[in-house]
């Protein structure tokens, strides 16, 4: 994330966040766009967005390998420490985004969530409904090692494996390696752990078989873990009374 988080109840940090928040055509976003075009890279990155409404959003931009801004996702689920309705400065977003990406001979659909979003099942459900095969998740919190998970309770990493499996998606989680403890990781569409980095800064290049989503998972309208058995007409009366 370009700008970082403001600490709850920290006047100095909140003032700084207001100062550095920028619109989607701001100088830092333009710099990333130019870099993506020059290096032919796709990039998802977080930033503090100053909206046209002058509200501040915890956002993640996706820029493609031509330097084009495909979408800006505004974090939908904000904890009290970051929410403007409580101690923070961020206004919650209200939309999810998925866009097609061409890699070699394969076209796949990419979506984004941010940090706490992964703990809310509806996040990845909505992205799955939009056809997402790969979900990228910028993170800013401590992670657990998959080879040392606690046995007495569930944790965020277990939730992420469940989100990937129940929606048949790859999920890539990228975490801060200094302010927090790193541990960035990738989960496959069957909930399998593909890799996890250590606590230090670093770069990993991982080839993912994205084509298996269309060929093996989303090809079956019922899904292997219940996607096609959902009955929204039953849930609506309980979830949206």
Characterize the structure shown.
There is one protein chain. With 241 residues, the chain is of the alpha+beta class. The protein folds into 2 domains: 95 residues, Carbon-nitrogen hydrolase (Nitrilase/N-carbamoyl-D-aminoacid amidohydrolase); 146 residues, Nitrilase/N-carbamoyl-D-aminoacid amidohydrolase (4-Layer Sandwich), CATH 3.60.110. The strands form 2 sheets. A 6-stranded mixed sheet has the order 4-5-6-7-8-9, with helices on one face. It has a 3-stranded antiparallel sheet with strand order 1-2-3. The mean pLDDT is 92.
Please give the structural blueprint:
Elements: H1 11-20, H2 27-39, E1 43-50, E2 56-63, E3 69-74, E4 98-103, E5 106-112, H3 121-129, E6 134-139, H4 156-167, E7 170-175, E8 185-187, E9 193-196, H5 211-217, H6 232-239
Parallel strand pairs: 5-6, 6-7
Antiparallel strand pairs: 1-2, 2-3, 4-5, 7-8, 8-9
How many beta strands in the DSSP annotation?
A: 9
CATH topology of the largest domain: Nitrilase/N-carbamoyl-D-aminoacid amidohydrolase
CATH top level class name of the largest domain? Alpha Beta
Count of helices?
A: 6
Structural class: alpha+beta
What portion of the residues fall into strands of 2 or more residues? 15-25%
Contiguous uncertain segments of 5+ residues: none
Q: State the helical fraction.
A: 10-25%
In short:
This protein is an alpha+beta fold and 241 residues long.
Please supply descriptive tags for the structure shown above.
alpha+beta, Nitrilase/N-carbamoyl-D-aminoacid amidohydrolase, 2 domains, 6-stranded mixed β-sheet, 3-stranded antiparallel β-sheet
